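Appendix B: complex inputs.
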Amino acid sequence: MKPIILASASPRRQALLEHLHIPFTVYPVEIDEHFSSLSPEEDARRLAKEKTGALLCRAPETASTWILGADTIVVLDEEKIGKPASLEEAERILNCLSGKQHHVITGLALYAPGNAGSIITAHTVTVIRFKHLDAGERAWYLSTGEWQGAAGGYRIQERGGFFVESISGSYSNVMGLPIHTFYGMLRSLNYPLFS
Amino acid sequence: MKPIILASASPRRQALLEHLHIPFTVYPVEIDEHFSSLSPEEDARRLAKEKTGALLCRAPETASTWILGADTIVVLDEEKIGKPASLEEAERILNCLSGKQHHVITGLALYAPGNAGSIITAHTVTVIRFKHLDAGERAWYLSTGEWQGAAGGYRIQERGGFFVESISGSYSNVMGLPIHTFYGMLRSLNYPLFS
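Resulting structure:
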């Protein structure tokens, strides 16, 4: 199989690609991750595409390789939530998520080499329901430090999973790489998955 | 935190406990895993409880330790499906899952030491929808060998995840250990989770 460049430093995305047995290298790019006035779905696709485009600009030799960009946004009551910048922000977000339903959206951008090269984008939405968290649970969870570097301030595949009553949609999407959507993109661009 | 004995050899359950930062040791027990005439939910709880009970019988010294037993069953059109015993059976199951919805049920049994010791059981149901699989996809998936040792003949967290259109409920349940349910059991038996 052809290696894919992952334009993201997320260890969760790397773990998912490993489980899929897809060869990849990591080449994170820094972009301005501020949200725009677009809808969350469009914003997630835009940021994923900007990451892929930024890599092609900064390292033109990557144009001969497959590239995957991704961006994950948490949405609660129409507010877009990224990664908390501080413990205080993580606490505020956790209080907001407690006992409620929120959405997680990951945008993907896949670049295929050949001819002029083409980029396609897609997004996936998952609905998450959190249990009500009492003061002890909140204090304990913040003390684990899992909020750091996580969109929405929790990690579903670690201790944050204790608090997730149910999900509806894709789980891997919440980890940052919706596998089924990614599979459809690979197949539509004729990535040699089965060889 | 107190160590828990996991009465299961499943590497997926071990990985989940690791992510939860719960100390554990593995002590798999072999029991007769044939299904009974009970409902799938009751059967999953029964088998989980039998695993815990078998360990307490065979290794009485474990009575002073927390013990977790688990059993996962796939249900399609009211048929209970365990782990395929052969490539042919895996192929038959994959054909049945293709393009349809099925249920995954994990039963848990948690034993707490102290006094006379107590066992509680619980189960969790997740609904999974598979995409329609064409002949190439089926042949390729069977060639990966992922069906071996997996209830229902696929691994959602590996390449089987390509085919999962959506899930409703708990994801960790499909991996064999429903985290949120487990959390409720730990708290109800006063496991010292936060210390």
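The longest helix of chain A spans residues 40-58.
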